[in-house]
Amino acid sequence: MTLTVFLLSCVLQVAAFTVSFAETIYYWKDPAGIYHFYKDPPKGFVPRVKKESSPRQSKKSLSKRQIDKLAEVFGRRHRVNADLVRAVIEVESDYDPRSISSAGAQGLMQIMPETQKDLGVDNPFDPVENVEAGVRYLRMMLDRFKDVQLALAAYNAGPLTVEKYGGIPPFAETRKYVIQVLKRYRYNRSKARQNVQFSQ
Question: Does pTM top 0.90 for this prediction?
Fold first, then answer.
């Protein structure tokens, strides 16, 4: 009988941190269709190793220009200024699709796991899926608060927190976040206008 070996990869999330570990399981299937498992390799086996891809790895590796294009496409689809989307991406993850925050937010637009479920996100490390969901969520915050600053505060601290305080929450992190995104947003808009003038 032929014995095969697979490297089974598991992902364990504890609190806000993701810890990955791997365990090797040896098994073979007998003529009756019954699987036999071993923790240690049986004598005389010839291994075949299969390593599952980590969920932290994005399916697509995109350049900054391609990610900016995603911001433009999904920004247009959900009526969010692409320059604002780019600003959020830069402040949230600095264009790293594998980024994970200390609080557990994931991907280019740093979407929390709970929000991912609400948005129907399957792989938060897929740039296309992450940006589409992030822009959609940002649109929801803009519709809810009718104000860019409040929408950004809600994106960072949660809409219920913004409603609780009746404005930008008195958290240093959230206030700094809003300032940084708006600063980058203004820069992106200014640069876009300069490019338009240059091309004319």
Answer: no
